[in-house]
Amino acid sequence: MKKTVIFGGTFNPFHLGHLKLTEEVIKLIGPNRFILMPTHIPPHKIARELMSDEDRLEMCRLAVKDLPEVEVSDYEIKAGGKSYTVRTLEHFHRLFPDEELYFAMGSDMLETFLSWYMPERIMQLATLVCNFRDEVDRAACEEVRAKIEALGGRCVLTDCEPLVCSSTDIRDRIDRGEPIDDLVPKAVAEYIERKGLYRD
């Protein structure tokens, strides 16, 4: 059966942690299609200093330009409103009814997953895939995975060395005038600098 992975997030900005998760999931799952999906309005958290849809889409495109198996989708952005994962998965289930869907996320999202809108339906539609940031994070993810599997869902944790990196830290560094070259892909750093993003 063909496999499609959807990786959603605000990507504000897209950083090396996102890139590592993308690469690890591709190696682990071996999908026929990997879709990077910037959210329009995240329903699960307050997105501070959220850049425009166009800027976040472009940063995603620049970040994965050397990964031909990855496509950047503007589906959630064009759909407008809050970007509910269940709605996105229903859409791609209709598009690819004979394919197995996977939904990739960071550990911060997995830890709140059971409080999302319609998590039971999400579990029916897709296998969850997650990477953790450190060993404490891993323990929390394992706990959530056990709960998901007890409810009949499927959850895969990537077995790779965690990369500690957060968009919040990157935005704070930019605000302080500090370099971010070690945290984001080079093309993304150049784009942020050129456009003057995340500066008051």
What's the SSE blueprint?
Elements: E1 3-9, H1 16-29, E2 33-38, H2 53-63, E3 70-72, H3 75-79, H4 85-95, E4 100-106, H5 107-110, H6 119-125, E5 126-131, H7 135-150, E6 155-157, H8 167-175, H9 186-195
How would you describe the overall organization of this protein?
It is built from nine helices and six strands, in the order βαβαβααβααβαβαα. With 200 residues, the chain is of the alpha/beta class. It has a single domain, classed as HUPs (Rossmann fold). A six-stranded parallel sheet has the order 3-2-1-4-5-6, with helices on both faces. The radius of gyration is 16 Å and the shape is globular. The model has no long low-confidence stretch (mean pLDDT 92).
Summarize this entry quickly.
By secondary structure, the protein is α/β, with parallel strands linked by helices. The protein is built from nine helices and six strands. Helix 2 runs antiparallel to helix 9 (186-195) and helix 4 (85-95) packs parallel to helix 6 (119-125).
Q: What name does CATH use for the topology?
A: Rossmann fold
Series of secondary-structure elements, N-terminal to C-terminal: EHEHEHHEHHEHEHH
Radius of gyration, rounded?
Answer: 16 Å
Instruction: Strand order, main sheet: write it out.
Output: 3-2-1-4-5-6
Number of strands: 6
Number of domains: 1
Biggest sheet architecture? 6 strands, parallel
Identify the notable features of this structure and list them briefly:
single chain; 200 residues; alpha/beta; Rossmann fold; 9 helices; 44% helix; globular
